[in-house]
């Protein structure tokens, strides 16, 4: 039997298929079902900065920049009292989960400013979470805000949170950075033990009849795997934090690719929401069968074997890939 175990954020996990943050973890029953299906760890759905701070309506200057004033943007937020459960319930759920399941529970905070709300990270730790994932979802719309300033803000946030807790911290990032490896390195230096690649930026749609901007959540498709796969392969071995791959993991093949690129774990949400939590069981089983068939002894042996550092043609992950891809299309002679 191949050895499926992996380590992530210093946690020993029985295999690399982790349940990503999703509504499934909003209830104790969902967390229990994830454990029963064999998830090696669960990332809780996120608690939002706005949920913690909305009493005072005081976010720091960073959120106030740009064309929208904070109060204007707040009117668009879902009714915060009814959005997810509140901060106290969130902590209560982590406590209950710790008493009910044996797999690691990773708390999740979604925020962008290093405001007073980061104390909440400590409360998540006290509630018993094994680790904390910080989801940084900020869209820069202000032409006066430079990428350097934005990145400094992230670094400050990570430094503040990581220095206020003892449990390991991971950072879930968007793919839209100009020089991702540099930022990834700095995040590691600021205290991130792991990077979760990537957040899916859900793009709004336009309703041309009602003239409304409508939120539009579509579950991921397997083709979305390519983006995090490429970046995991590029970052593997170059930066200190562990790499977790999320977005587009729907099958055992996807998990295996992520491992070969250099991820420590994969995080799955859409597949479980679409086909049920029990898919997790079959994905893990299929990973094991594939490894058996291809005579891999362990996940560890596989990790990074197809990273940019290991492959015969490192340029395949860079600009040359673009040219080759175009060439291969032309070669099909379908025009
Ligand atoms: C309905 C839904 C709710 C989600 N809620 C959260 C959340 O609260 N916090 C978070 O960090 N990610 C959240 N995600 C993102 C997932 O954790 C995951 O990173 C993303 O969907 C990509 O993985 P996938 O392709 O397996 O869906 C959510 C995704 C979906 C589909």
Defining traits:
alpha/beta; binds flavin mononucleotide; 40% helix; 335 residues; nine-stranded parallel sheet
Folded structure, characterized:
The chain has 335 residues and is an alpha/beta fold. Helix content is 40%, strand content 14%. It has 14 helices and 13 strands. It has helices at residues 28-37, 49-53, 61-64, 70-76, 87-100, 119-126, 147-164, 180-189, 226-235, 252-261, 270-275, 279-293, 299-302, 319-331, and strands at residues 6-8, 11-13, 17-19, 42-43, 47-48, 105-110, 131-135, 169-173, 194-197, 205-207, 212-214, 242-246, 265-268. Strands 3, 4, 5, 6, 7, 8, 9, 12 and 13 form a nine-stranded parallel β-sheet that branches. A two-stranded antiparallel ribbon has the order 1-2. Strands 10-11 form a two-stranded antiparallel ribbon. Helix 8 links the parallel strand 8 (169-173) and strand 9. Helix 10 (252-261) crosses helix 12. The longest helix is centred in the middle third of the chain and has 18 residues, at 147-164. Flavin mononucleotide binds next to strand 6, strand 13 and helix 11. Flavin mononucleotide is lined by residues 20-23, 45-46, 108, 110, 135, 172, 200, 217, 219-220, 246-249, 267-271, 273.
* Ligand names: flavin mononucleotide
Radius of gyration: 20 Å
Question: If you average the pLDDT, what whole number results?
Answer: 89
What would you call the shape?
globular
Uncertain segments of ≥5 residues (pLDDT<50)?
A: 55-72
């Amino acid at each position: 039997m191949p050895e499926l175990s992996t380590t992530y954020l210093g946690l020993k996990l029985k295999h690399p298929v982790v349940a990503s943050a999703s509504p499934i973890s909003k209830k104790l029953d969902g967390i229990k079902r994830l454990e029963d299906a064999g998830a090696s760890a669960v990332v809780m759905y996120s608690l939002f900065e706005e949920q913690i701070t909305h009493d005072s309506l005081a976010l720091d200057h960073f959120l106030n920049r740009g064309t929208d004033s904070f109060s204007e943007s707040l009117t668009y937020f879902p009714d915060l009292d009814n959005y997810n459960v509140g901060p106290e319930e969130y902590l209560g759920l982590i406590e209950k989960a710790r008493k009910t399941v044996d797999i690691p529970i990773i708390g999740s905070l979604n925020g962008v400013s290093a405001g007073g709300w980061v104390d909440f990270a400590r409360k998540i730790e006290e509630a018993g979470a094994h680790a904390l994932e910080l989801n940084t979802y900020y869209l820069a719309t202000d032409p006066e805000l430079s990428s350097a300033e934005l990145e400094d803000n992230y670094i400050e946030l990570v430094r503040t949170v990581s220095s206020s807790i003892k449990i390991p911290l991971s950072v879930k990032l968007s793919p839209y950075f100009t020089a991702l490896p540099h930022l990834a390195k700095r995040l590691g230096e600021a205290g991130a033990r792991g990077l979760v690649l990537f957040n899916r930026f859900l793009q709004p749609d336009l309703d041309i009849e009602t003239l409304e901007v409508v939120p539009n959540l579509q579950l991921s498709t397997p083709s979305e795997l390519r983006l995090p796969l490429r970046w995991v392969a590029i970052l593997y071995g170059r930066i200190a934090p562990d790499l977790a791959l999320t977005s587009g993991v729907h099958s055992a093949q996807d998990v295996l690719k992520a491992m070969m690129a250099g991820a420590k774990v994969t995080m799955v949400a859409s597949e479980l929401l679409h086909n049920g939590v029990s898919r997790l069981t079959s994905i893990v089983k299929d990973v094991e069968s594939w490894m058996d068939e291809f005579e891999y002894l362990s996940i560890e042996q596989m990790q990074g074997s197809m990273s940019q550092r290991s492959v015969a043609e490192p340029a395949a992950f860079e600009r040359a890939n673009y040219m080759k891809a175009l060439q291969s299309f032309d070669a099909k002679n379908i025009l």
